[in-house]
Amino acid sequence: MLAELSEDEATGEIAHIYSQIRRLWAAPYVSSLQRNLATKFGWLEWTWSAIGPAFSSGTAQSAGWGIAADLTLPELPPDWPALPHLDKADIQAIGDICANFVRVAPVNLMFAGLLRRLLLGLMPRGAGWPSIMWSPPETLPVLPAMVDIATVPADLRACLMNLGTEVKGEPVVPGLYRILARWPQIIDYLGTALPYLEVAPETEAARLALLAGIDAAVEAVFAQLPALSSPKMPAPHFREDILATLETYRRTSPEMVIFGKAISVVVKTEM
Q1: Which of 58, 89, 256, 266 has most Cβ atoms within 10 angstroms of its Cβ?
Q2: Spatial contact of 231 and 51, defined as CB atoms under 8 Å apart
Q3: What pLDDT score was predicted for residue 168?
Q4: Cα(193)–Cα(75) distance, integer angstroms
């Protein structure tokens, strides 16, 4: 799995940035994208100083959320087997979990897109944003802890690994599935349903629409970013690793939006 600096371990400036991300993303956690960046000397601090104004103004989040809201979702066939029985509390909890990832993933795509442009050598020269206070939406409920993949039963571990991807040969299982693994019957169900949805034409259309919208928004937002106070990258030998990680999030974040929404729809039909 990707190296991460946990929220509990963060101190000083990194802890402050984490708190800003939670507030501005309107989510109760900092995702693995930023937690991984924080393990590389100076990188999270440099990145936030460069692109943070786009999020402090609300511009980047609003763009990502608006694009994600307009997607047409894939659907399972009407005769698809029913979801295993869940009680009302479980349905609410799963809906809240999916809502967190649907909220965070488009913002992370904006974050990754802006950072990628910096790593490719583009330098912002924009006017920035007026110094007005932007109010994010209400923060979503706290998430349950992710399961430890190393300690779950072998059959559940195999299902989770099948739902994951790789970064430089290392397995990465998205946090959505690692939390939903608290309900093994859901992971078993997704092991059948998601491969079907992955090849549905609507899924590819939604993925391309999301990425095209994000790319256009990133270009517009980047053009407005003010000049860097510190143009020099910290620890430049990490550049290629970071680019590879950003490419992974470009694959997994659309999945979190599309499948997170789809899972919510399926679960809510049980209510």
Answers
A1: 256
A2: no
A3: 64
A4: 10
Q: Going by DSSP bridges, is the β-strand pair 165-167/170-172 parallel, antiparallel, or unpaired?
A: antiparallel
Instruction: Please state, in angstroms and rounded to a whole number, the distance separating the CA atoms of residues 203 and 150.
Output: 31
Q: How far apart are the first and last CA of the chain?
A: 35
What pLDDT is stored for residue 270 in this prediction? 60
Task: Give the separation between CA 246 and CA 161, rounded to whole angstroms.
Answer: 20
> From residue 239, how far is each of 15, 30, 117, 209 by CA, in Å?
23, 21, 12, 28
CB under 8 Å to 38, separation ≥6 — which residues?
Answer: 4, 5, 10, 14, 17, 18, 44
| Angle, CA of 207, 78 and 201, to the nearest 5° | 25
User: What is the rounded distance in angstroms from the CA atom of residue 26 to the CA atom of residue 20?
Assistant: 10
The residues, ordered by sequence, that sit 6+ positions from 73 with a Cβ below 8 Å of its Cβ are: 202, 206, 258, 261, 262, 265
Q: Are 151 and 182 in contact (CB under 8 A)?
A: no
Spatial CA neighbour of 38 closest among 62, 68, 18, 53: 18
| Per-residue pLDDT, 37 | 97
In single-letter form, the type of residue at position 168 comes to: K
Under 8 Å between Cβ of 165 and 197? no
pLDDT at res. 2: 76
Q: Are 252 and 172 in contact (CB under 8 A)?
A: yes
**Range 96-134 burial, b when 16+ CB lie within 10 A, else e:** bbbbbbbbbbbbbbbbbbbbbbbbeeeebeeeebeeeee
Predicted local distance difference test score (pLDDT) of residue 240: 95
| Residues 101 and 256 sit within 8 Å (Cβ to Cβ) | yes
Ranges of the chain with pLDDT below 50: none
CB atoms within 10 A of CB 260: 21
Element (H, E) at 166: strand 165-167
Residue indicated by tokens 């143009």: 231
